[in-house]
Amino acid sequence: CALCGHEHLGVLCSSPSLRFLVSIPLICLPAMSGPKQGGGFFAAFTSSFANFGSVVHKSVNGLLGYEGLEVINPEGGQDDVEEEAHKGRWKQEDRDGYWKMMRKYIGSDVTSLVTLPVFIFEPMTMLQMMAELMEYAHLLDLADECEDPYLKMVYAATWAVSVYFAYQRTWKPFNPILGETYEMVNHDEIVFLAEQVCHHPPMSSGHAENKHFMYDVTSKLKTKFLGNSVDVYPVGRTRVKLKRTGEILDLVPPPTKVHNLIFGRTWVDSPGEMILTNLTSGDKVVLYFQPCGWFGAGRYEVDGYVYNADEEPKILMTGKWNTSMSYQPCDMDGEPLPGTELKEVWRVVDVPKNDKFQFTHFAHKINSFDTAPKTLLPSDSRLRPDRYALEKGDLSKAGAEKSRLEERQRAEKRHRETLKEPFTPKWFQSTGEVAPTPWGDLEIYEYNGRYDEHRATLAGCTGEDNGIDIEITEFNPWQYQTLETETEAT
């Protein structure tokens, strides 16, 4: 240990349903050699590990004069929080004012509760972020082609891990307008469609398909604002169907924590379990995303196992969600089988240097019209004037357009309530099913197939494609087309 000179410790959990390898490089053996209580050594280990995770948190009360504020430097210790608190993208006057406004929301779900300044946004919407899961979708192609039932799960679980590199961006995406959509084609023969199906609470549905797999998701984020951080709970259901065998995979991702929202440099961590279950065979993958500790210890690390239906470990998986993942066959105790070696299954591709918004090349591709169909739905996220203005660096126009869109959305809601008309999504429909998740119940939406009919109709049309001019193409997700004129007249 760099702090005390003692040996480090790696622990193999003895629980058959939660077995995983854990690296804790800054907790030394003597620190854990005291009396064990309750659940034996592993209980003592988890208790010590919890204390280890919390030791990097230090209140800056008295340092800055802000009650209940925590600042965390993921690359440092507990003695540099005052210096860290003065860093970040906020100006001092903006930081002070926003803290005074936001502190009353501590403990609340702020998913759509407050209006945020546009300078903390990135030129992308939540619907587009959903499509980022398709960057390494070739792993699902491999899963579909794979004859080995456990290696199949390695490919699929690695696909689920791969998106976290992109999701570590610290800029906020735009919340979609009700009825907004995002289409993506021209990427590995995948057709992707997402739609905002509900505004309160904000809910999105997505569907993607190629010759190997079918992907369906209903997503409803739930948050808890904690002052200078926010916990994000992925209340949702993600299903993947592998077409060759018809197997259905169900994904439950870990929660995410965004640190240093106002004071300090913002950073993202996703500590906890990811569980991928093969609903057809009963096999599953349990991966543990390690929390960040002192001086970045454990940050990005992911470890776990592929289990058969009897909860026996078959393959161990290890890596870092920001770099690569590898796998190796293991015995019943989770130890690597003799004569085998770790094999890398995925590695992050190169990213743009010094990108302002930390976009990957694929994120830029998502934002471009290279991945758009020839005839784009007018409700597409690419056409949002606030998103486009931010992309061009015009923060003033982006803020004004964002306010205009939000006011139009509120006007539509009032009009809909006056008429007592419900909102009906175009491309998805409610199944009537309410499914439990670890963070609350979820109303399930499903793809209604009409987008395929829409694309088929367009394919039968003749005439040359004239392209899309975002300068003159109006963003239009609206249910009532004449409402804006009526509102302006009023």
Protein architecture, described:
This protein is of the alpha+beta class and 490 residues long. Helices cover 23% and strands 28% of the residues. The strands form five sheets. Strands 7, 8, 9, 10, 11, 12, 13, 14, 15, 16, 17, 18, 19 and 20 form a 14-stranded antiparallel beta sheet that branches. A hairpin with a 2-residue loop joins strand 7 and strand 8. Helix 5 runs antiparallel to helix 6. The radius of gyration is 24 Å and the shape is globular. The relative contact order is 0.13.
How do you describe this structure in short?
23% of the residues lie in helices and 28% in strands.
Based on secondary structure, the structural category is alpha+beta
Strand coverage percent = 25-35%
Please give the radius of gyration in angstroms.
24 Å
Through-space gap between termini: 70 Å
* Count of distinct strands: 22
Main β sheet profile: 14 strands, antiparallel
Count of helical segments? 11
Shape verdict: globular
Poorly predicted runs are 1-64
Mean pLDDT: 84
User: What percent of the residues sit in helical stretches (DSSP H or I)?
Assistant: 10-25%
Write the layout of secondary structure elements.
Layout: E1 9-12, E2 21-24, H1 40-54, E3 58-59, E4 70-71, H2 81-85, H3 92-102, E5 121-125, H4 126-131, H5 138-145, H6 149-162, E6 172-174, E7 181-187, E8 190-198, E9 203-209, E10 213-225, E11 230-242, E12 248-252, E13 256-259, E14 267-269, E15 272-278, E16 284-289, E17 301-307, E18 313-320, E19 324-329, E20 343-347, H7 361-367, H8 385-391, H9 395-419, E21 428-437, E22 440-447, H10 450-459, H11 483-489
